[in-house]
Amino acid sequence: MKQPLTLAPVVSAKDRADWLAVPAIVHSGDRAFVPPLLMQEKRRISTRHNPFFKFGEAQLFVARRGEAPVGRISAQINRRHLEVHQDATGHFGFFDCLDDQEAANALLAAAGGWLAERGMKRLVGPLNFSVNEEIGLLVEGFESPPAILMTQSRPWEGALLEKAGLEKEIDVLAWRMNPAQALPAVNRMAALASDPGRLSVRQFDMKNYRSEVATLIDIFNDAWSDNWGFVPFSDPEIDALVAEMRPFFRGNYGRFVCLDGEPVGTMLGLPNINESIAGFGGRLLPFKWAGLLRDLWMERIRSARIPLLGIRKAQRHTTLAPAMIAMLVSQFLSESRRYSFEWVEFSWILETNRAMVGLAQMAAGPPAKRYRIYRKAL
Question: What element of type H or E holds 337?
Fold first, then answer.
């Protein structure tokens, strides 16, 4: 017989501990699950440390049966989203739940009620906390571990959301390419440039790291401005990104494609540290951080993720555009062979982005993973 269900906003230290414990409980026995680093997760929900709280507010909820946590969710309002889209949309995130429909219904009702009380008309998610962080609920590709900064879900969780009255908003996709197998097809596309003499690709200049990141974000904000859910990176987010990437970032992880010497497109790759931390049990201290650094600097990691890839809107529909994207990808895949990468993940890609979907399918076939964003009227 089930213990009675209770649901509570996260206000106490015990509430926070139970909320943070939910993923390990839900994914117990899931061989593809990579426990998030507890120290990092605590910082993410801290109003003092996460730049999201400079322009947003959130409430966390935890569901319990008896004393045991069985599910969690966040409800958040992103003022930058509202300024850009003016759609009275609030978001939910960090959804994880055992196969317990009553608990899922209660979590979503709590998140929706909190948002409705603050004037929101729509509930969309999961976003953890914003579109510039992890998004989507995994609905295909449960067998393999997620790449860095991507989520893992259980097969029943999508059904829980749908039975609670949510429906699909949009899907985002992840492709995994074997560099050796994908490179010939990408090189053929790169060779299609109608005027290749005007194009060049360069790595990040690490002597000017901060300004290079600023250029990358400027291009990204322009390139993605017409995409679903787009919200430009804020100054606090950029500052956090600069600080967080610096310890393990190298110049060959980033690329700019230049037109007549001016950067007009960009690509950012990240070593997939999930390979290293999968066995940490969420604990980096006291000594496991040294193993992570050793894997990074001795180049033991055998996979990578490309989270940012795009060209400025002014170049998007020119004859050079396909070659620009292909040149960025080609050079990174060539570099990946030196590191003996088994795969490079391109994620996330909107299912509506036909150009990128076409390139990914040509180089790698079907997507490796599919993540779904849901919606519900409030």
Answer: helix 321-338
Name the band, by pLDDT with cuts 50, 70 and 90, for residue 131.
very high
266-292 b/e (C-beta count within 10 Å ≥ 16 → b): bbbbbbbbbbbbeebebebeeebeeeb
Q: What is the largest CA-CA distance in the chain?
A: 72
* pTM beyond 0.90: yes
* The one-letter amino acid at 212: E
- The angle subtended at Cα 82 by Cα 77 and Cα 86, nearest 5°, is 140
- Asked whether the beta carbons of 128 and 113 are under 8 A apart, the reply is no
* The predicted structure's pLDDT at residue 196: 63
Model pLDDT, residue 296: 67
Domains of the chain: 5-174 (3.40.630.30), 176-367 (3.40.630.30)
Give residues with Cβ within 8 angstroms of 304, minimum separation 6: 269, 270, 271, 272, 336, 339, 341, 344, 345
Token digits of residue 144: 């393999």
DSSP code at position 163: H
Residue pLDDT, tens place only, 291-334: 666 766 667 888 989 988 889 999 988 888 888 888 888 888 88
